[in-house]
Design goal:
The chain is built from 7 helices and 2 strands, in the order E-E-H-H-H-H-H-H-H. By secondary structure, it is mainly alpha-helical.
């Protein structure tokens, strides 16, 4: 018997029907990527995972690209390129007379597979670089606003809160995260 939940309006809703109404990528691909990502994470050297986690953080921790999903996508892209390349090499090895030998084609496929495997890293690096530039541009104004607030008698946390209330962008997101960490008990220096 499918589970049912009550909406805020008092109606009963069948959760199974709600799941079936979601697009296939949400029902099938996301759980598949999460499962593969968890397994790949366990097999990936810790230093590589830490490096990837850092790139994801610098890119603003996009909700659509957690570390596990990024690892799974990297693996799928590399394997898909290898398979497509293997098919290409096999199909062209029978029809001789081309510029590349079979070995040359296989080498080209390996290079393309490594490139495909590293594309998510490149995308994260570019997004992180752009985000860092936006933060550096907004930092002087935020520091100015904080120093004025502290001189006016507000505490450091309240001055941070003032910047968060009046601003937008990645710097404000980071300051908001800092305030949240301080609120849950993380030492201010670490937050």
């Amino acid at each position: 018997k499918p589970a049912a939940a009550e909406t805020g309006e008092g109606r009963l809703v069948d959760e199974h029907q709600l799941r079936l109404q979601q697009p296939a990528r949400l029902r099938v691909l996301q759980p598949l990527l999460q499962g593969v990502g968890r397994r790949v994470r366990r097999l990936t050297p810790a230093a590589w995972v830490q490096s990837l986690e850092r790139r994801v953080r610098l890119a603003g921790s996009p909700a659509a690209w957690p570390v596990e999903r990024t690892l799974a996508v990297k693996l799928f892209m590399g394997i898909a390129t290898l398979l497509a390349g293997a098919l290409w090499v096999v199909s062209h090895s029978r029809s001789g007379g081309t510029l590349l030998t079979t070995g040359g084609r296989a080498g080209a496929v390996l290079v393309l597979a490594l490139f495909a495997y590293s594309l998510p890293d490149v995308a994260l690096r570019l997004r992180g670089r752009d985000r860092q530039q936006v933060i550096q541009t907004a930092l002087p104004d935020a520091l100015d606003q904080m120093s004025i607030s502290v001189e006016a008698g507000l505490g450091f946390d309240a001055a941070l809160g003032r910047v968060v209330e009046s601003g937008t962008g990645p710097l404000v997101e980071e300051l908001q995260r800092t305030l949240q960490e301080i609120a849950i008990g993380v030492p201010r220096k670490q937050a």
